[in-house]
Design goal:
alpha/beta, Rossmann fold, 7 strands, globular, 10 helices
Length: about 220
């Protein structure tokens, strides 16, 4: 049985049940997979994050503690400089040249793929699994659309048959939860309980995170 490595990157600022449910559904659908959530150290496409990388990493570790099938990979937090996904994939590929490597990203992120650093190299390093939700629509620039169209497959087994280079779409459950809204609630003194794990909310209160931010994006 081929064991693939799948990664799901993001700022996780903070991590919430929308992130966790998406990861769980993809991991279950893929089956035999080493599934890792990768918090960005210094996101290249955002001016700032509201919580320091060490806090975002700690919150993610707390959130995943009950779920051994999902792991945290801290390489972007440890690495200096902007957290370019291509560097992360190069690092993972250097560890295992033949294992299938799957980059999981949402439709909105996929629509912006042309703005990613060395985006064309992503296909050489990994498969792309685009997580779609009801009513989400692909809006790819022409060059990205061409690459995705010629690489598209319909089965998970196809992803397991090669180390990299294919694209699969997978519909996941839509949970109307956002980190922006959670931060805004906290800044206003409201309680965002049931939107994120209690362990994460307790960590936020313990360290006084997000209280002084308006969390506009």
């Amino acid at each position: 049985m081929t064991v693939a490595t799948a990664i799901f990157g993001g700022t996780f600022d903070p991590v919430h049940y929308g992130h966790l449910r998406a990861a769980a559904e993809v991991a279950e659908a893929l089956g035999q997979v080493d599934f890792r959530l990768v918090p960005a150290g210094t996101p290249p496409h955002r001016d700032t994050t509201m919580a320091l990388a060490r806090h975002r990493l700690a919150m993610l570790e707390l959130a995943l503690t009950p779920w051994p099938d999902l792991a945290v990979d801290d390489r972007e937090v440890r690495r200096r400089g902007p957290s370019y996904m291509v560097d992360t994939l190069r690092s993972l590929r250097a560890e295992n040249a033949e294992r299938p490597l799957i980059l999981c990203l949402g439709q909105d992120a996929a629509n912006q793929l042309e703005a990613w650093y060395h985006w064309g190299e992503l296909f050489e390093l990994a498969h792309l699994l685009i997580m779609t939700r009801p009513r989400s629509r692909p809006r790819y620039p022409a060059m990205v659309a061409e690459q995705i169209h010629k690489r598209r497959v319909r089965t998970n087994s196809a992803l397991m048959s090669a180390p990299a280079g294919l694209v699969r779409q997978m519909e996941i459950t839509r949970l109307a939860i956002s980190s922006t809204d959670i931060r805004r609630q906290l800044a206003r003194g409201r309680n965002p309980r049931f939107l994120l794990p209690e362990s994460v909310l307790a960590y936020i209160h313990k360290h006084g995170l997000y209280r002084d931010h308006q969390a506009d994006e």
